[in-house]
Design goal:
Layout (H helix, E strand, L loop, with lengths): L4 H15 E6 L4 E7 L2 E9 L2 H15 L8 H19 L6 E4 L4 E4 L4
Parallel strand pairs: 3-4
Antiparallel strand pairs: 1-2, 2-3, 4-5
Helix pairs in contact: 1-2, 2-3
Length: about 110
Amino acid sequence: MEPKDEQFYDQLIGHLAAKGKVKEDAGQAVLVISEFASRPLPPLHLHVTPTILGDHMRATATAATGDYPDLHPMEAAWWLFIDHLEEAVQGAATGETKLFLDDTRVVAQPPAA
């Protein structure tokens, strides 16, 4: 049985909390990340809901097994998503405070974009 969207979302919050500081703003459909890997950050706004995350996971599951061939496709999708999220958080340029999921990865942009 595959995890439900809410389970992935809760897992995401737990992962970010274990790596730093995260605050959920469900009304805005945003997770605000203010610290990551013991490094304070300007607040990064990850635009995500349980449904958005679940859809992303299902869309990338088959392709993710190329990077994680020994894992179940949904578990592979999770770890590929985490890889992309951590790259986006750590690689966000000055002023890129909006994070969102596109078809295959996590993208950082300035807030007006």
